Q: What sequence folds into this?
């Protein structure tokens, strides 16, 4: 008897859309629907695991989740994200929409809506409580879009860049900086270790600053190994990004790690993001440790 080849596994593509109320979640959901995603909004968290009990999804699925969902909780949502991300038949991306407190307050003032976490209080009380509640969810984001100053049209265009599914659509890239002390960010495809580079931590004047500072960047770039390292990382990206795009992949995550996640990894992330953006790739940056310090 001739052995039959095993049937290929079908992967279900799921985008989980969340973030604080007023940051643009509804606009993002509508934009994904326009991109031919199936939409389920405000699904109770307890029903989330049952979505994949049936046959594979015929088209990408976008799930809208926020504090208005029945049985919503940050811990429960993080557990659901980790569970879905661990399944081999699921390609999960967490899209987190965020905005500054001032921007959220402005939007609430314009619409005169009550905040779901402070129906009898001030909108700012609800905004502050919700942002604190969502800190662990934000840390699990694969795509983070800061909507402060964005019009709905701008946000729809940004969503199209990241999540368009049509043939020939562009590949989007997320670059992460992180500290090895706190482990690798979830979902990285490629990891680069920057700990061999010259460390600004040992310069008292540079220590309080971070890798976005021009003097910090110049200090790191003075390492005699930097130019070769960066040019080879850029050459690797130039090779891999078109190849992943040809294979139909929509997103690639590259991480740069250093000891504290503040100087060398941040500088490399900024430098490569600038180079890739100049080449026309949609690029998003995540500085995990700097974001953690800012919250």
A:
């Amino acid at each position: 008897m001739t052995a039959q080849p095993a049937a290929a596994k079908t992967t279900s593509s799921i985008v989980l859309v969340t973030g604080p109320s007023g940051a643009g979640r509804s606009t993002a959901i509508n934009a994904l629907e326009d991109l031919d995603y199936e939409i389920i909004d405000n699904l109770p968290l307890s029903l989330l695991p049952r979505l994949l009990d049936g046959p594979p999804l015929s088209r990408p699925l976008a799930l809208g989740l926020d504090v208005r969902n029945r049985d919503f909780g940050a811990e429960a949502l993080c557990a659901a994200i980790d569970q879905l991300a661990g399944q081999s038949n699921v390609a999960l991306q967490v899209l987190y929409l965020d905005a500054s407190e001032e921007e959220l307050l402005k939007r609430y003032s314009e619409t005169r809506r009550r905040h779901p976490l402070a129906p009898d209080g001030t909108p700012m009380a609800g905004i502050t409580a919700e942002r604190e509640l969502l800190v662990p969810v934000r840390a699990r984001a694969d795509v983070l879009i800061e909507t402060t100053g964005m019009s709905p049209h701008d946000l729809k265009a940004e969503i199209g860049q990241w999540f368009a599914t049509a043939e020939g659509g562009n590949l989007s890239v997320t670059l992460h900086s992180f500290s090895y002390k706190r482990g690798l960010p979830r979902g990285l495809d490629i990891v680069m270790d920057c700990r061999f580079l010259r460390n600004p931590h040992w310069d008292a004047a540079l220590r309080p600053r971070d890798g976005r500072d021009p003097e910090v960047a110049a200090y790191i770039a003075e390492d005699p190994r930097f130019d070769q390292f960066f040019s080879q990382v850029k050459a690797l990206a130039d090779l891999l990004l078109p190849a992943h795009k040809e294979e139909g992949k929509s997103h690639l995550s590259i991480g740069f790690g250093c000891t504290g996640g503040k100087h060398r990894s941040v500088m490399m992330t900024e430098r490569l993001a600038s180079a890739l953006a100049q080449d026309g790739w949609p690029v998003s940056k995540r500085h995990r440790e700097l974001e953690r310090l800012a919250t």
Q: What stands out?
A: Residues 12-163 form a domain with the Rossmann fold fold (CATH 3.40.50.300).
